[in-house]
Amino acid sequence: MRFPRTFFPALAAILTLAAAPIHAVTEDINSPHGRLRVEVDTSDGLTLRAWLDGRVVLEPAPLRLNLSDGRSLGTDASTMTLSRRRNRGVVTPVIKQKSATIPDNFNEATFTSAEFSVAVRVYDDGLAYRFSTTLGGTIEVTGEAVPLAFPAGTRTLFPEEESFMSHNERSYLDFELADITSPRFASLPVLCTTPAGIRVVFTDADLFDYPGMFVRGTGGSVLTPTFPPYPLEIVPAENGTSDRNVEIKQVGDFIARTSGTRSFPWRTYVVTDDDRDLITSQLVFLLSRECELADTSWIKPGTVAWDWYNANNLIGVDFESGINNDTYKFYIDFAARFGINYVILDEGWSAATTNLFEPNPDIDVPELVAYGAARNVGIILWSLNEPLAKDRDALLDLYASWGVKGVKIDFMQRNDQLMVNFYHDTAVAAAARHLLVDYHGAFKPSGLRRAYPNVISYEGVKGNENNKWSADVTPEHNVTIPFIRMVAGPMDYTPGAMVNTHPANHRISHFRPMGIGTRCHEIAKYMVYESALQMYCELPSLYLKEVESITFMASIPTVWDETRVIEASVGDYVVIARRHGDTWYLGAMTDDAAREFSLPLEFIGPGEFEATIMQDGVNAAKHAEDYRQVKQTVDADTTLSLRLVGNGGWAAILRPVE
User: Fold this and answer.
1) Tens-digit pLDDT profile for residues 204-226
2) Structural domains of the chain, count
3) How confident is the model at residue 14 (pLDDT cuts 50, 70, 90)?
4) Is residue 414 part of a domain?
5) What is the C-alpha to C-alpha distance for residues 270 and 486, in angstroms, rounded to an integer?
6) Other CB atoms closer than 10 Å to residue 413's CB: what's the count?
7) In a domain, 255, yes or no
8) How far is CA 215 from CA 53, 189, 226, 442, in A?
9) By residue range, what is the domain housing residue 20?
10) Does any domain span residue 24?
11) 143 and 194 in a common domain
């Protein structure tokens, strides 16, 4: 049994050493704990390599930023100066996605020339570097060289893409790097595992006014960066989906047109030989710019009842269910009964998907807002990105005047520079009107949520909605994404299915979708998956038949004061403990293998707790909906025994005994 490590961050301390000419051919930057070592070689331009405890993480490879005028920044390091910085501090996030405070401890070296600098920063759980330029005017960037050279025999879980036009909802495919040839490519984050067992999750952070990166195979142990080109002409699609799909008719021979004086995104590597660290890492958040909002008191994380997954298909009611006021009042009453904070009006609430100013004739948004407000339930409206972008200020003004709490924006499905800027500009406009933003059909988080914490969640993950048209969301997939996709930030997976099946019994149904895995596998997602806006995807009519399950799930918070990962293995299992206030929330999930765990509760602190436990039932291996709720009194000397069937799960809430 491995026990979670704890740490006691020091008071903030920054030590900066003045810039000096580089005399050595190589410069080392070590992590605060000394295990991770990064070497920057300046003898033939800038190259970078890294080791963990003496084991190779990255082989030597160049750092370059290439411009359209032919310059390749980083090629000549002969006149660069070096400065070093040591930071020991604590960050307090607006949204407590993993914890109430975050240690911000790193060592940094900055290599500076007349036109640009490169900062290399090393944390205990990873490393990152970024270019900054002082060129003035406007520049065009054509590409980068990024150190992604791994030891021979490295394997990867590769979220392979077919096009830059993508919702980035991918499965993670297991390959040896050498088997991935060009032009095959993947979105980020991507996980690589060296022959020595070192995990590297590569992604980006502080992404602003620049395209998102993808990585391409080379047929060797090296990945190369690739980017969506800069769009010069965008037209509506001609395939009958012009409301949500576009065609890029013309692109530039560059990836970004931007200010010549700026900092570029951090190229970010989470590095560990302990899978638990992949879930607790907050590197992407720490590397991103600080909050831009003076007042964040209005930003309220919470839970939300969602209609689209279940097709508004209510049963046992005395009205015709559908996209109408009666149906949404039923959703609001359901939400109010169980303390759910929001209800989403998804596609269909408006007069047309391209007319977001008027509700359809059966919907009265102000009436629903008032009905919800009287019951402490807020309303969130869905929209497509293209119609919203055309009339953003007028639409957001209207929604704010109605009293709506947020917008769920869908079908961006690009991350070229123009689309990255759409995310930013929409976050700014929404914040000015005190509106939350949930991006669907979206790329993964890359730092915007720290600058604008009203960006409450992102999709960019293959989640429960896929059950309506595929069998891809398997328990193995479910215990893979916390270690890769969730490294980037919150993921709006939309859990909560109550029609639970094992893979052999799964059937595709648009109107009655089935979740793959046991009931307790589904419930544990609320402990394991991070999203400050967490959805309940199932039909309220089914939740009302499963009151014990929804009562338990609806009492789980969406933000956390503390996170501890007890046991974890990528693609196999996870056992996690999270604290909110003085209450602990424990969850466990497994793939298709039955597993048992011993869970000592020494971390819960003094006193007795009442544990409410949801566990796989005696017959859950045959019938996925079989579960049992048990209660017992526990304390820090208690060790819980967890028994999970294949595709199973386990969850518990530990409340202090008064």
Assistant:
1) 999 999 999 999 999 999 999 99
2) 2
3) low
4) yes
5) 12
6) 21
7) yes
8) 27, 9, 6, 18
9) 13-154+188-215+247-287
10) yes
11) yes
The 10 Å CB-count burial string (b at 16+, else e) for 485-517 is bbbbbbbbbbbbbbbbbbeeebeeeeeebbbbb
Quick check: helix, strand or coil at residue 101?
coil
* Cα separation, 600 vs 608, whole angstroms: 14
pLDDT tens, residue by residue, 321-356: 999 999 999 999 999 999 999 999 999 999 999 999
Per-residue pLDDT tens digits for 101-118: 999 999 999 999 999 999
Please give the DSSP secondary-structure letter assigned to residue 52.
E
202 and 68 housed in the same domain: yes
Cβ 73 vs Cβ 116: under 8 Å? yes
Q: Based on the domain organization, do 32 and 133 belong to the same domain? A: yes
Containing 106, the helix (H) or strand (E) segment is strand 102-112
pLDDT at 11: 37
Please give the Cα distance from 550 to 540 (Å, whole number).
10
Question: Per-residue pLDDT for 5 more than 60?
Answer: no
In one-letter notation, the amino acid at residue 78 is S
Coil, strand or helix at 76: coil
Q: How confident is the model at residue 23 (pLDDT cuts 50, 70, 90)?
A: low
Residues 318 and 259 placed together within one structural domain of the fold: no
Structural domain includes residue 342: yes
pLDDT in tens, 587-618: 999 999 999 999 999 999 999 999 999 999 99
Beta strands in 550-626 (DSSP E): 562-569, 573-580, 583-590, 595-600, 609-616
Claim to verify: residue 323 and residue 265 sit in the same structural domain? no
87's enclosing H/E stretch is strand 81-91
How does pLDDT run across 392-406, given as a tens digit for each residue? Answer: 999 999 999 999 999
Cis check for the bond before 557: say yes or no (omega within 30 of 0). no
Are the C-beta atoms of 635 and 608 separated by less than 8 Å? yes
Catalytic positions are: 410, 465
The residue among 582, 599, 583, 579 whose CA lies nearest residue 650 is 599
Three-class SS of residue 619? coil
Q: Where are the beta strands (DSSP E) in 146-198?
A: 155-158, 160-161, 173-176, 185-186, 190-193
Nearest to 560 by CA among 235, 102, 20: 102
H or E element: which one contains 189?
A: none
Residue ending a domain, choose from 518, 552, 586: 552
pTM higher than the cut 0.85: yes
Residues 418, 279 within the same domain: no
- Co-location of 34 and 66 in the same domain: yes
| Averaged pLDDT, 535-554 | 98
CATH code for position 367: 3.20.20.70
What distance in Å separates the CA atoms of residue 558 and residue 301, rounded to the nearest whole number? 7
CATH number at residue 120: 2.70.98.10
Q: Give me the pLDDT at residue 240, please.
A: 82
Q: Is 503 left (phi over 0), alpha (psi -120 to 50) or beta?
A: alpha
DSSP state of 187: P
pLDDT digits (tens, 9 = 90+) for 50-70: 999 999 999 999 999 999 999
Mean confidence (pLDDT) of the chain: 97
